[in-house]
């Protein structure tokens, strides 16, 4: 039958379904088969021929027909999984049912009255022997559907290569088949790389799209503050009920990490061969991150996993087997494979060779960043492996590239956040700071001034650019950005002059009176920067003459801070100035050099770009936990135990945390909710500004530098720098303070943020076919820039 005919027949069936007011019997195969038996419709056809309005009309006006359609389509998938899909006709039926369910499911989820439908039992679909009408044993429709999808993903000659030696052998029995021998790609726990097969990839992709659609019920629930709501679809699919959980987890992970979009190193190769692997890799990445959406709060059960790639020594992990397997990967070669794969893919958009468009540009870097986050968060051995060598810089540079590139684009706020969260997580480990000292020589075209220096300089220059020329919605990230710099500062051996100037420029901008007084939290930024300077002076004075010189040149800023006015009239006057020039922060002059060759300025979003809303992220005090570094390098938490009275001064009481609690009390917010700083409030934190070390440094060095200038009539900085390089402050500075690290700590706020961000990305990236477009999602709002 021609495809035009089959589309016509399919369309006729849809029209009949919407116009029949009487329920159609489930046994009326002649009617139901029109939807899948003799049609060859692509997924795009199904979306075009089954309009949203008609699905909603059937749902409202003849609900029993919609229920029967779903039930029959699932039944066909179950039959296909049972039989092993040997004939072409069976394969076509499975694909047609899969496409139809992908089309219809979002409209089931969108209506609260229908949400339980797939979890209700269907008479006759027993868990036990077939055909028993024993309702005790009946399986909910959702479970039957998920198990059928799992079976079909390891179906010989349909989604995996058959291992049969000859056609004489009987068909491989799908029930006794060991799917661990059919893993899709070499990598973790599997050494054999199967022959690429276009049809198998396409069939896997369709089934994974259906699986992702099943999981997407989460999009139709509003964000819950406690985030503990478990997705029943994911929970069942990742449980021991799914006998393919391990091979499927491994297949998804290996498919993503083994993917090489460059076209095997041949420039322009992607223009000659359409890369059918990319859509599968993208789908695999999306399914993987959704199965790993787990906030670690569920009780653990006995480990029931096998497989040598997993670490059996650890205590049994969470019930979600995908999270469990991920957390137990432990072999160095597996870590290397994963890290190299993710770094290769994240660097792909940066590969600007001399031949523009010579490499295929992948679009799923946000999914990869979520995956990398999950790996580091659930598998501490992986995190330590990442930081063990300078390979971590292959992750850092792409993240800095994305942050810099997205800083002016309102539609990419989510990307900015996840990039910063990953760097915050890494910065809690000493090794990250140490690795940053490696010279930066890769010349990725970036819209930043050209400089010579280390990866630490690159990080500071990019952060400065985000703070001074990003858009307004990034302000909540300033605390995080500076916390990262504080965390790495004790380990930075030698900042370049450019990075030193950028840090002092930030201090200048943040310590103007109008900025300090115009919001309750702004002074924290000054505390963070002073902490950075103190760490470097106390722990890395030798080698940091550039920073010392910059501090001496800008010494007036420190004197102004020490003499910050606290009288009401001056505070009032500063705020008047603020109301006249609200934009002043980002536009304060900073000597910008020429941007790198080949770079494009960070552009705002095109008008009309779609974006999804995000829940607010917790403040830095909730996001991190303070730890003190002891002499031997070990960390000691400084967080007060919950039962202690927090008034007792902990070693961290010099920190702004005391002031955080104070300022709520002292700031008299006026009736209009307008922030109104008082003298008491300013005094409460001004007295805690950690200026002693810097003031002592200035007291010792400024007269010496001035003397050199007068004696030698010097205006040349290189001479002064040479003097500072050989100078020493041993015995002249206050006793070094203990190093404080603020480590990221998991919390329900970020768990919910990740859920909304991840589903927002998936919603926007699935446009062909537009699976969720124009349905009533509740987890986020769709907005136009």
Describe the global form. elongated
Task: Specify Rg, calculated over alpha carbons.
Answer: 30 Å
- The tally of strands reads 7
Strand order of the largest sheet: 5-4-6
Class of secondary structure makeup: mainly alpha
| Low-pLDDT windows of residues | 124-135, 297-308, 586-590, 642-654, 656-672
Largest sheet: 3 strands, antiparallel
Tally of separate helices: 34
Beta-strand portion reads under 5%
Mean pLDDT: 83
Fraction in helix:
40-55%
| Gap from first CA to last CA | 46 Å
Question: What report would you give on this structure?
Answer:
The chain is mainly alpha-helical. Strands 5-4-6 form a 3-stranded antiparallel β-sheet. A hairpin with a 5-residue loop joins strand 4 and strand 5. Helix 5 (63-83) packs parallel to helix 7 (141-152) and helix 6 (88-109) packs parallel to helix 8. It is elongated, with a radius of gyration of 30 Å. Residues 666-675 have a biased composition (Polar residues). One of its GO terms (cellular component) is cytoplasmic side of Golgi membrane. This is HID1 domain containing. InterPro entries: Hid-1/Ecm30.
Summarize the model shown:
InterPro entries: Hid-1/Ecm30. The protein is mainly alpha-helical and 785 residues long.
